[in-house]
Amino acid sequence: MEEQFVLPGDIVGTNEEYEAGEGTYTLRGNIYSTRTGNVEVDRKKRNVSVRATSELPPVIKKDDIVVGNVVNVRDSMALVQIAAIKGHGEREVNNPGIAAIHISNIKEDYVKNIANELALMDVVKAKVIDTDSMRLSIAAKELGVMSAVCGRCGEPLAIEEGKLKCPACGKTEKRKLSADYGTGII
Model-level pTM? Predict the structure, then answer.
């Protein structure tokens, strides 16, 4: 067996020599790599493949805990741009897109006005409850807003006597807070 480092799109062999294996594709008689990695040639089986040398970006799955920014708040839902998946460090998420938190998935209790629980620019920690329609929930105690800014002046809000208060202008605001608010711990 031989090994050689390649990038996606590099030629790793021809159809005349080998069969295309894992991590490769065939086009016009040539075999190309689909990933960054090491070429592995099995001369007995006449097969060429590419073994990845780096992890693929994580894909969001049901029950994952994700972190994202609230980008829109509507009457019955908030839209969140997902930025990370808990347990995957600073690794970029594969095609995260926008997810929705429906008003019924904010608290176990009845929520009359979503604007009292979430606001634009909030950083939230949420649980993925459906990957087909990308729905999230922040109902559990450890889930919710992790960081928020003042709606009046844009300064970060701090917890003071159990409420969010702006240290710059003094405005108080309500949110569905994560147990980890202000800690940066996912």
Answer: 0.69
